[in-house]
Design a protein that fits this description.
Bound molecules: NADPH dihydro-nicotinamide-adenine-dinucleotide phosphate
Number of strands: 18
Shape: globular
Structural class: alpha/beta
Amino acid sequence: MGKALIIGAGGVASVCVHKCCQNSDVFEEICIASRTKSKCDTLKEKLDGGKTKISTAQVNADNVEELIELINKFKPDVVINLALPYQDLTIMDACLATKTDYVDTANYEPLDTAKFEYKWQWAYRERFEQAGITALLGSGFDPGVTGVFSAYAQKHEFDEINYIDILDCNAGDHGYPFATNFNPEINIREVSAKGSYIKNGKWVETEPMEIKRVYNFPEIGEKDMYLLHHEELESLALNIKGIKRIRFFMTFGQSYLTHLKCLENVGMTSIEPIEFEGKQIVPLQFLKAVLPDPASLGPRTKGKTNIGCIFIGKKDGKDKTYYLYNVCDHQECYKEVGSQAVSYTTGVPAMIGASMLLNGKWKKPGVHNIEEFDPDPFMDALNKFGLPWKESYSPELVD
Ligand code: NDP
């Protein structure tokens, strides 16, 4: 059906490439392009020989001209951005210049301020509309599937949704005292930032990790979880009718938090450059270099993830609660595609989002968040491609 250019060759891209090859009727041809071409070649070697034709390329995604040249050469129908959030705008610029559809899994973040906001990408709306191309923002799990779950709940289960709690539990154990499950720089920037949630249309800010709850996750059990700022709160509060409050919680173990506090206290999580032996270095980037590569955690990680949304609202004048979630097993993911569940739960929806543009079901010129589209074909694809969802009408609630 079409051609996809995948930018990035890390944990998430690796899963996405595997999944594109499993969906070869839609992904006839893919090109994997990243800063380090050897990583793209390794992926190609692993998956070559199937129905999807694979090529590779070297690209610096900070450079719009390089991206345009690559897009003009490969002529993809869609670009799947699985590099880092810093590259979102340059890749969107290149898509605009070449009139190519765009998909990502994380919103743009300037390098020098850890701030997650959609304003930079939403500013492209008119230009994408005029160019007749679609940008699908946030097609990972959270953001991503959480938005699709919300659209599905709105469409099929509620007249009005008043409260959403997004719960992200990773009960995987990789055996290291401290490691992050995806890009350490992005992960640590996210968890060391202030927390926030939306109440009655306004942001309420908290200190980092100030709000803690214990939740009994289906198929996992009780875990400590903490309220974090998360990007999908901003778009869901606008796109879901009747929202009074929306919060995001993520689980963290005590060992992770103790290490993080210690690293913070000594200045290792700072994104302010410092002078070291005549060279400018960013402490957090240095920390990334000494931590285990998330891609290496796959074979060691045991346990499950459970990510989902609890909705509270009204249907036919009556109060209603509804919980939609997915449980994923780290070792089963590793057996299937050679990656742990955090990369898996992001790479599968990235492939599905791109397939919705290639098959025309979600083609809508402009810049859109995922919950703006019909959730049904995406929900079907989740069941088909390894992220089956479960539902409950009487979940434990978070106070
Ligand atoms: P990795 O660090 O494993 O991979 C990032 C890849 O991007 C690497 O291959 C890297 O190249 C490449 N890259 C970085 N900078 C450039 C550049 N300037 N030009 C070209 N390539 C570049 O990250 P992950 O795979 O874990 O994460 C990928 C994305 O997914 C991130 O944006 C992350 O925020 C997002 N994510 C979203 C989630 C969701 O649920 N929505 C959950 C988890 C992650 P090199 O190998 O040379 O370093």
